[in-house]
## 1
Amino acid sequence: MTVNSLIESDRAHWIHPVSSWHDHEQRGVTVLRSGKGVYLTDIEGNELLDGFAGLWCVNVGYGHDSIVEAAAEQMRRLAYATGYFSFGSEPAILLAQKLADRAPGDLKHVYFGLGGSDAVDSAIRLIRYYYNITGRPAKKHMIALERGYHGSSSTGAGLTGLPAFHLHFDAPAPMQHHIAPPYPYRSDAASDVELIARSVADLRAKVEELGAENVAAFFAEPVIGSGGVIVPPKGWLSAMQATCRELDILFVVDEVITGFGRTGPLFACEHEGVTPDFMTVAKGLTAGYAPMGAMFMSDRIYRAIADRSAGQPIGHGQTYSGHPVSAAVALEVLRLYEEGGLLANSQAVGAYFGERLKTLLDHPLVGDVRSLGLLAGVELVTSKTAKTRPDAALNLPGHLARIGYDNKVIFRAFGDGIVGFAPPLCITRDETDLLIERFRASLDELLTIKEIRDAV
Ligand code: PMP
């Protein structure tokens, strides 16, 4: 097929995720063809530095033969085994064991799904189940952060705190609530301590308003991802955990982006010794080589449900829960993080990446840079002193991403003038330099657009 016929077929038939269908039709698809390490090659032969690891998922980089072999070997031996009716497969069992060994606290039980949305959806369903079966059926309200992202299932999208996921979707659902995020750059709090105290007070106030006896859980990402890569001050996550414990509500940490070395340690919870009641992961679990997500549940909650379930099947499951090929992929990916040195590289290069990003602060368009490990956000402003958000009509991040593509670097454009970076964890210092260099050149080029230059 020619490039043009691919573009035509795509326009005619493929409904793309999270996009304006109208704008996509106008713009046409960009077809990617191959990848190696941190580089992608598109159908026209352009080699691009992927500063976003696909969709913050290809943590090990592209083209790992050992993962291909693990998947092929498992497909040859046994392409599918159900987890229903007490069946299972070796890779899924080994993976559950490995994950439980490495997860924080007593998160000893793992439910496998297909990605992040159904990991969150599983947590929501099982939290309801837990409170109903343990005799506290009133505990149903769930609280999350504005700008948080918890997937696009019909329940998870309500917890997501982004307007596009609610508009015309009748979301959030009743009993889903949001509080303000900890947003250092946009907060007038005098210190990190004050910012954390405000978050705690907001959660407390929301729980009081609803009545603690009616509140089931609080959901949070350790670093707000899709809402603009907002890094809370150190101590925020543990303060929220302590508040949940005190108020007797479950603490759910969504590590779909931050899990598997993205911020340095295997899980971002480890930065502060946080031990949630539920934890959700996906993306880096299989590094995008196969679809898989997982929900971890504490031993305490698992036992409370298991001990009451004699003779009663718990009606939650998917055909592909614990898919053996995805599990075999995940086992090899985990080996690459630990024995293959990728976690160590993420820690070493993550610090360097953070330093290099800070050098962008002298640029007239850059108001803020924030990062944790290899996860970063850059917030563009049209006045640095007034921290003025660029007019949405200027579509600064969109223009920047397009210019970036022409300069052979990929990063992610968000709303509110924010762009995000999440390169594969195998990125070297030289590749980091190249990423920053190409990004800076793209920023400079952005200023050659008249309306943008006039707005600054
Ligand atoms: N939670 C978080 C924190 C996420 O970032 C995402 C995806 N970006 C999800 C849940 C949903 O994951 P998926 O897209 O795999 O359904």
## 2
Amino acid sequence: MAPITPQPGIMEIALYQGGQSHVEGVSDVLKLSSNENPFGPSPKAKQAIAEAVAEVHRYPNTDHAPLRAAIGEVHGLDPERIICGVGSDEVLQFLCQAYAGPGDEVVHTEHGFAMYPILAHAVGATPVVARERERVTDVDALLAACTERTKLVFIANPNNPTGTMIGGNEIARLADGLPEGAILVLDGAYAEFVEGYDGGVSLVDARDNVFMTRTFSKLYGLGGLRIGWGYGPKEIIDVLSRIRQPFNLSEIQMAAAIAAVRDRDYAEFCRAENTRMRAWLARELAALGVPSDTSLANFVLARFADVAEAEAVDMHLKSRGVIVRRVASYGLPNCLRITVGDEAGCQRVVDGIRSFQEARR
Ligand code: PMP
């Protein structure tokens, strides 16, 4: 009998390692490992979820028109150029399914989001890594990594797990230098944390080869519901819409997202608190001799002396119920990514690192 084999590329995939949420034997756990909003979603989103539950026997709306209208209204975008997915992960998946396949290349940055190579392999394409410069996206390296086989170039801005960001001129230079037929995908999962940043809308509007993605998982505190969206040229939206499953989002997801995106006061509160506590956390870490790059996202990448120290700090924090993220699989084995919590959460992680240092003396 012929062996049963998966499609090419599938066995190349390294399983995604999600943020841990439990520690054996510890009840008071503080999870700062998945860049979640410490305040949760807007109360209006919770109310909308409760109301939408009454209609779960009905199939959801298939075209997401009310959600696209709400996003379009808030961000000043044409709803016809928006597509919604099960998290922005699904929108990234649509892009790979639609534009990349065996023999094609998908370029991403050295310390880029783990889903990029997974999604590329899943469609049989080859992920290609472009080096960064001191944990910052390097446009020259990205351009050098492109070939005539490049179909997609993914950059997250701000990037996960580094938190660093590059400016609009650099992104425009990247878009302009791409090979014919390649699409630049600006992953804006953390864009909302950056004051005055539109995630690249003006660049998308000015080019036909730039697409951007956003999420409700981070600033809006709805990671558990799985809602994301993309904005791009009409032609690309038309292509992606053909492969999107008609019922990919439930009414619960859509109702929650509509209420969340409309609650500007709450979003602004969360953004301002993140900015305030991120600065505090980076300052406290520096005072403890732990450097971090300037982060514009809702996490800080703390750098330790070596791998052994990062591991030891991670274990110590875990023993106190504080879960942060090891990022060895991102090529940063001496770093820990710490989500910006609320005031008490930030204090607890700093106290944990201080007590580690004291115990070592
Ligand atoms: N892009 C980046 C850079 C991320 O960090 C994440 C979440 N970890 C995502 C995309 C996907 O987020 P979601 O699918 O929850 O929208």
